[in-house]
Specification:
The structure is a single chain. By secondary structure, the protein is α/β, with parallel strands linked by helices. Helices cover 34% and strands 24% of the residues. The chain has helices at 18-34, 48-51, 67-74, 133-142, 155-164, 174-179, 213-219, 225-241, 286-312; strands at 8-14, 38-44, 80-84, 96-100, 109-113, 127-130, 147-150, 169-173, 188-189, 204-209, 249-256, 259-267, 274-282. The chain has a five-stranded mixed beta sheet with strand order 2-1-3-10-4, with helices on both faces. A five-stranded mixed beta sheet has the order 7-6-8-5-9, sandwiched between helices. The protein has a three-stranded antiparallel beta sheet with strand order 11-12-13. Strand 1, helix 1 (18-34) and strand 2 form a beta-alpha-beta unit. The longest helix has 27 residues, at 286-312. The chain is globular and about 65 Å long.
Length: 313
């Protein structure tokens, strides 16, 4: 008798934000639909990132939205967890593994503006809100005249600040807007070659204990191989650079004609210094391509930029 030939109950750890619950409920439905006899219960976990009201790059950023959830996994209080890949630190704790990557949502950044104006229509000296140093750097590289206003809070909170702070626009991940059914608020999508997305943007990762074969069998049907290949390339790129929320690092991988194409960037916070590169190769060399692109950028000055950013952080 296989693991899934009997009824089982699994606990899914998740943050309680509107977007996190939307993502967790989607995973719950998919798991239950693909595995008759499995019932999933959501367990809400408050993370450090939910408790603070400080820009993430000032307090370390990576891991703030996952640490407590991973601790619950290790203590066996939950059986698996769903994260936004862009919130994950480069290194996963011993005993845990990223078991599945569902098919990626739209990875692009989106502009939400007053009166639906496009980016090219932003007024001279206009105010644009973002909580991301990556977006800030690329934004100022494109339009040094703009004033960047730091944003903090969940997706719905940041959307409200468009009016509350009288901003001309805010920049958010289109994936979250789509998952919540708010894509009608989007004024314009940024081409990922123009505004390179965050590592793993638009992708979900499902994490579990490495030895839990019961959960592995349940999650295997959710794994989308092209997404896994692309995301692991991006994470290898970021890990080689020592990436985190304190530094403007961007990376985006896509599959074209059975080959992996990876674009990466390291920039100064003010957007004045920017090192960008691209590589491509066989799909099975995804992590090698990520590490190789990072090495190329480091040789071309990315290391100096990173050291300068860390000194000021």
């Amino acid at each position: 008798m296989t693991i899934l030939s009997r009824k089982i109950e699994l606990r899914l750890g998740t943050r309680a934000s509107l977007l996190a619950l939307s993502q967790a409920n989607w995973v719950k439905r998919r798991v239950e639909d693909l595995n008759p006899g499995v019932m999933v219960t959501l367990v809400h976990i408050k993370t450090t990132g939910d408790r603070i009201d400080t820009p993430l790059f000032q307090v370390g950023g990576k891991g703030l939205f996952v640490k407590e959830i991973e601790e619950a996994l290790i203590r066996k209080e939950v059986d698996f967890a769903v994260h936004s890949v862009k919130d994950l630190p480069a290194v996963i704790p011993d005993g845990l593994v990223l078991m599945a990557f569902p098919e990626r949502e739209d990875p692009r950044d989106a502009l939400i503006s007053q009166a639906g104006k496009k980016f090219a229509e932003m007024p001279q000296g206009g105010k644009v809100g973002t909580g991301s140093l990556r977006r800030q750097a690329q934004l100022l590289s494109l339009r040094p005249d703009l004033e960047v206003i730091p944003l903090r809070g969940n997706l719905d909170t940041r959307l409200k600040k468009l009016s509350a702070l009288n901003l001309d626009a805010v920049i958010l991940a289109s994936a979250g807007l789509r998952r919540l059914g708010w894509e009608d608020r989007i004024s314009e999508f940024f081409d990922p070659e123009v505004m390179i997305p965050a590592i793993g943007q638009g992708a979900l990762a499902i994490e579990a204990r490495q030895e839990d074969e019961r959960v592995r069998e349940v999650l295997t049907p959710l794994n989308h191989l092209p997404t896994r290949i692309a995301v692991l390339a991006e994470r290898a790129f970021s890990q080689r650079l020592g990436g985190g929320c304190q530094v403007p690092i961007a990376g985006f991988a896509r599959i074209a004609l059975e080959r992996l194409v990876l674009t990466g960037l390291v920039a100064g916070v003010d957007g004045k210094r920017l090192v960008k590169g691209k590589t491509e190769g066989p799909l099975e060399k995804n992590t090698d391509l990520g590490e190789g692109l990072a090495e190329d950028l480091l040789k071309r000055g990315a290391g100096e930029i990173l050291q300068e950013v860390y000194r000021k952080a």
